[in-house]
Amino acid sequence: MTTDVQAAYNPVKKKICLIIHALSPGGMERVMSQLAVYFSRKDTIEIHLILYGIRRDVFYPLPSSVIIHRPEFTFKNDHRTWNTFRTLLFLRKTVKEINPNSILSFGEIWNNLVLLALYKLKIPVYISDRSTPGKNLGTLHNRLKKWLYPTATGLIAQTDKAKKVAESNHHIPNIRVIGNPIRDVMPNCSEIKENIVLIVGRIIRTKHLDELIRLFVRLNIPEWKLVIVGGDAQGQNLMNELDNLIRKLDVKERVELTGTQADVDSYYQKSKIFAFTSSSEGFPNVVGEAMSAGLPVVSFDCVAGPSEMIEDGKSGFLVDVFDYETFSEKLKLLMEDSALRHRLGTEARKTIQRFSVESVGEQFLSFILNEGTEID
Which residues are bridge partners to 69 per DSSP? Predict the structure, then answer.
């Protein structure tokens, strides 16, 4: 086991162990990093972070006080079964050595692995699913969830919908609804706004970026530009497909693919509208971040997430999934009405504050340390 020892041991502190496959670019990973940063500010808490996936990289910056643990071996897919077994042993051994007061694990399939590795250990384990409620993980992992999830001490659901699904499927009595922490993306008064429709996220099929490009082009409002911030993910390699579509439609000057960007905030700050055509979400951080930046949002009202943040017609627009005609109408309305953009954007920034990092961080802490907050 390799450990980035970044903090001196303090026996007075409570120890929280955060477990995730990696901190690569992504919503789940961003939330875990935000929680690690927030928890680490507490003088009474020592944070351990276990990274155990194939890459184990850290994209999001962490404070030096976070103690990071990684396996010493490289996970190779050509020996997947053996390396999965080694990962199970690594997780169990490392957690026993840390001996934390509480454990927090993210990710559906990943949670199965963690719960299996820590089976029968007398340490509280809290888990959280981070994607669409009730997502089909395949026969093996669906069965593992039914067996292993009830062994968790508690489950954090991102939305009320996710809580209902968990209650019906996993028989976990201790479930708390806690939304994602949303970074405060301050509008930059010195930044000159451009006529940009923005979308941020991983380039995967469920974002339906090809359809967004097509409807944007059909609107034919030449002074506006569509900017897509994000890179390929999940091995789908769609960037080339989107680039070819842009070339085919001859709109290279009006549709931009930026790839993954470390400084996403500058895009929020210079854009005027945020468009979100994803059909499958748990709790999309980028929608909240856009709202925090004061952008009006047009979003598909997918199973969970956007409706927790957006009040239709007041702080943005919610559109039935795959209703591209209505989506196009709402987008056109915002592109043509600056007063409407200002009104919705101002309300969006105000209402999203309830998901501040401080508020959500305290809810997580209270729940996973069992500090007396009433269970829903």
Answer: 3, 50
